[in-house]
From TrEMBL, chain A:
It comes from Gossypium davidsonii (Davidson's cotton). Belongs to the glycosyltransferase 34 family. InterPro entries: Glyco_trans_34, Nucleotide-diphossugar_trans. This is xyloglucan 6-xylosyltransferase. GO terms for cellular component: endosome; Golgi membrane; trans-Golgi network.
Automatic annotation (TrEMBL), chain B:
One of its GO terms (cellular component) is Golgi membrane. It is an enzyme of class 2 (transferase). One of its GO terms (molecular function) is hexosyltransferase activity. Pfam families: Glyco_transf_34. Signal peptide: none annotated. It catalyses: Transfers an alpha-D-xylosyl residue from UDP-D-xylose to a glucose residue in xyloglucan, forming an alpha-(1->6)-D-xylosyl-D-glucose linkage. One of its GO terms (biological process) is xyloglucan biosynthetic process. This is xyloglucan 6-xylosyltransferase. Belongs to the glycosyltransferase 34 family. The lineage of its organism: Eukaryota, Viridiplantae, Streptophyta, Embryophyta, Tracheophyta. Its EC number is 2.4.2.39.
Length: 379, 459
């Protein structure tokens, strides 16, 4: 094959503007009539029956992969264009590696989305059409777990208590009083949540979507939300505020199937967690999932992919490194290694190689965890 | 591990990969070099020279980034400009720090001792009864079988360095590449390990995969196959499945050409960017036989000279894992070759340059599932090195091609959901199938069936 390419262009990546390349070669599709009411798709009212029938006809794709273990699809994603911040993509890469590790240990599949399914529902709203599409395309999925790209797993051993949610369809981190009584815009967090596949999910997505279409609708809706919710700043409607508003104003309709979880950090605000990692390592252990060892550390406001976040760049990036290493240590220890410190990319050995590798004690039980065991067949 | 794993197909340019890329491979380069009492002068000068190169590079990058960011016509107030400026400067400072190899814990670290060339390097204590150990373990742990739903358990292993790439584009394509692998593996029930740790300082760079593979084999007896794949390789046939039945009597499956190997002794006769190792004693033995040319420093350099002298077409540079494997299999042919399957019926590794321009033709004439030159299983961007600063090819050509490969593959996934990209370069998608109230009529989770069995609306 060829040696160095002699035709046009530099061989130096630092001199090249990638945006020259990322051009759509085909014309855009005609826009929807903005006066027509927005909808996520044709109304479906018998999804439970459709799904149930499909599951019966497809016994090879059960919605439960273990006695108390539903089939879960973790959904996350990022833009198909490079980040504006030059290290943003590096942090997205670390973040997805972190999720790959947790999900591998817990038997969860991942869908990494880089496509904007509906131009009107861009930004934080993009997850709605995506979630609907995935629920309808994957009847075998019992729970869809949405997780923001700026959220990382920091407890690799913690298994979500699925049994607790057997009567719920929507699990978010939050507090009942803050949502229903105070209507506080951060009473819950939509950066990491569980949604059960079913008619109820389709219905709540339909009820959630109307504040999303960008432009006038989203702007106006933003004003309503700022007025109605406690402490909400002025900006266009976001999916989280819209959900607080929806639940607070239609509690009777949805509330009984919504579980606002706060006994562990399904979403953990990074600001109150990252400085305590060393203390956690000293006093506690993985598997707790709560303030002692958070399941998820979520870097809300950092926006490493964009140019400007709400916090100092230095603090955000350094803390993201620490959170990554904190989680990564739990993986590395399976193989006998650990990071030299929470700030360091380097690893060191903490367990020597032996010629009896199978006798190694797996302290956290992550090497062959119970939640990954397959059903023992009779053959 | 996982350092510079995406350039094992060796650089065809001369001189050990030109200046800077080699610096990325050296964990110590650019860091503080305290406490090297017995370092030879020549090496000291070499290290100083490398340090200067890094400093210049970082400065250059900073200037470029500044140029790029400040260049935008910002007609705001001078105050806004000042804030903007501060933010840019702060970001760049952080970037430079993050990108540099300096490690906050370096000052306290004991000095690294160089490997004594008289002591043979080993990957670990010799194990001779792995097949037996594994068999016993499997029988005691029936809930972790090596076959699941009739399929052998495979682990796909890939990775990249723990530092950000020399430029942002590199990380962006690493991200796209892992998304691509996540998609393929989800569709085919394969687990992924993405490594970002240097498990063994001696075997850095492309060699890093050896200790990693060994470690994973020994920790996971339930794995039947370990599939190493470079970070610059993309799946481009989402339907094709590896025909494991062909390999029942083999322990290593690797893409290559027997005549290039045995007759020509070519240094590119095989490709170690995508290969499968069975989890067994034979593989441990091969890894042990493969490793000795790897330890960095004089061993790797001397080995490089041997390889260049013995393999056809190989430029002069330090030993790389691919050349070393070729040399090993040639010189110990009788010991190993009966268990090595040299595969070229499909593109377990597909060299990108001959493939990417034909994607449109493929879409017109063929369909996924073929895996060969009509619809390549894997398109591998050897020589592009987007994570470094310089590649062996024009940047524009590489990036354009990588984006096309990504979209070509992504279209096969999006199709399941009723979408496709608007061209092979662009980020945006369009609908090719309307939403319906009865979505399950189209859903077929076995992608092998869904491609052939269903009629799709044409765009």
């Amino acid at each position: 094959h060829d040696g160095a390419d002699t035709n046009a262009g530099t061989n130096n990546y630092n001199e090249f503007d990638i945006n020259k390349i990322l051009i759509d070669e085909e014309p855009d599709v005609p826009k929807r009539d903005p006066n027509a009411p927005y909808s996520l798709g044709p109304r479906i009212s018998d999804w439970d029956e459709q799904r149930s029938r499909w599951l019966q006809e497809n016994p090879n794709y059960p919605n439960f992969i273990g006695p108390n273990k539903p089939r879960v699809l973790l959904v996350t994603g990022s833009s198909p264009k490079p980040c504006e911040n030059p290290v943003g993509d590096h942090y997205l890469l670390k973040s997805i590696k972190n999720k790959i590790d947790y999900c591998r240990l817990h038997g969860i599949e991942i869908f990494y989305n880089m496509a904007l399914l509906d131009a009107e529902m861009a930004g934080f709203w993009a997850k709605l059409p995506l979630i609907r599409k995935l629920l309808l395309s994957h009847p075998e999925v019992e729970f869809l777990w949405w997780m923001d790209s700026d959220a990382m797993f920091t407890d690799m051993a913690f298994e979500v208590p699925w049994e607790r949610y057997k009567d719920s369809n929507f699990v978010m981190h939050g507090w009942n009083e803050m949502v229903y009584d105070q209507k506080n815009w951060i009473g819950l967090n939509t950066g990491s949540f569980l949604l059960r596949n079913g008619q109820w999910a389709l219905d709540i997505l339909d009820a959630w979507a109307p504040m999303g279409p960008k432009g006038k609708i989203r702007e106006e809706a933003g004003k309503v939300l700022t007025r109605e919710l406690k402490n909400r700043p002025v900006f266009e409607a976001d999916d989280q505020s819209a959900m607080v508003y929806l639940l607070a104003t239609q509690r009777e309709k949805w509330g009984d199937k919504v579980y606002l979880e706060n006994s562990y950090y399904l979403h953990g605000y990074w600001g109150i967690l990252v400085d305590r990692y060393e203390e956690m390592i000293e006093n506690y252990h993985p598997g707790l999932g709560d303030h002692r060892w958070p399941l998820v550390t979520h870097f809300v406001g950092c926006k490493p992919c964009g140019k400007f976040g709400d916090y100092s760049v230095e603090r955000c990036l350094k803390q993201m490194d620490r959170a990554f290493n904190f989680g990564d240590n739990q993986i590395l220890q399976i193989y006998g290694f650990t990071h030299k410190s929470l700030a360091s990319r380097r690893v060191k050995r903490v367990r020597n190689e032996t010629n009896n590798p199978l006798e190694v004690k797996d302290e956290l039980g992550l090497l062959h965890p119970a939640f990954k065991a397959v059903k023992v067949s009779s053959s | 591990m996982g350092q510079d794993n995406f350039a094992p197909q060796k650089r065809s340019s001369t001189g050990g990969g030109g200046g800077l890329p080699t610096i990325r491979n050296e964990a110590g380069a650019g860091g503080r070099n305290r406490g090297f009492p017995s370092m030879p002068r020549g090496r000291q000068m070499h290290k100083t020279f490398n340090n200067i190169k890094i400093t210049i590079l970082c400065g250059f990058v900073t200037i470029l980034v500044l140029r790029g960011t400040i260049g935008v016509g910002n007609l705001g107030s001078s105050e806004a400009e000042a804030i903007n400026q501060n933010l840019i400067e702060e970001t760049n400072r952080i970037l430079a720090e993050i990108r540099s190899d300096s490690d906050p814990t370096d000052p306290d670290e004991s000095p690294e001792t160089e490997l004594n060339p008289n002591v043979t390097y080993t990957l670990g204590p010799k194990i001779t009864d792995w097949d037996q150990q594994r068999k016993v373990w499997l029988s005691k742990n029936p809930e972790f079988p090596n076959f699941v739903n009739g399929k052998a358990r495979i682990l796909l292993v890939t990775g990249s360095p723990p530092n950000p790439c020399d430029n942002a584009i590199g990380d962006h394509y690493l991200l796209k590449a892992i998304k691509n692998k996540i998609d393929y593996c989800r569709l085919h029930g394969i687990e992924i390990v993405y490594n970002m740790a240097h498990l063994d300082k001696e075997l850095a760079g492309y060699w890093a995969k050896l200790p990693l593979i060994r470690r994973l084999m020994l920790s996971h007896p339930e794995l039947e196959w370990i599939w190493w794949m470079d970070s610059d390789a993309f799946f481009t046939d989402m339907v094709f499945e590896i025909p494991l039945y062909k390999y029942e009597k083999y322990n290593l499956v690797i893409h290559g050409y027997p005549d290039l190997l045995f007759e020509q002794k070519s240094w590119i006769a095989l490709n170690t960017g995508s290969f499968l190792f069975r989890n067994c004693q034979w593989s441990l033995d091969l890894l042990d036989a493969w490793a000795p040319m790897g330890p960095k420093g004089p061993i790797r350099e001397e080995a490089g000279r041997i390889l260049t002298a013995n393999l056809k077409g190989r430029p002069a540079f330090e030993a790389d894992d691919q050349s070393a494997l070729i040399y090993l299999l040639l010189s110990q042919k009788d010991q190993w070759m009966d268990k090595v399957f040299i595969e070229n019926q499909y593109y377990l590794h597909g060299y990108w340059a001959g493939l990417v321009d034909r994607y449109e033709e493929m879409m017109e004439k063929y369909h996924p599932g073929l895996g060969d030159e009509r619809w390549p299983f894997v398109t591998h961007f050897v020589g592009c090195k987007p994570c470094g600063s310089y590649g062996d090819y024009s940047v524009e050509r590489c990036l354009r091609s990588m984006q096309r490969a990504f979209n070509f593959a992504d279209n096969q996934v999006l199709k399941l959901y009723g979408f496709r990209h608007r061209g092979l370069l662009g980020p945006n998608i369009k609908r090719i199938r309307n939403e319906t109230a009865t979505p399950l009529e189209i859903v077929d989770l076995d992608i092998r069936r869904s491609v052939h069995g269903k009629t799709e609306s044409k765009s």
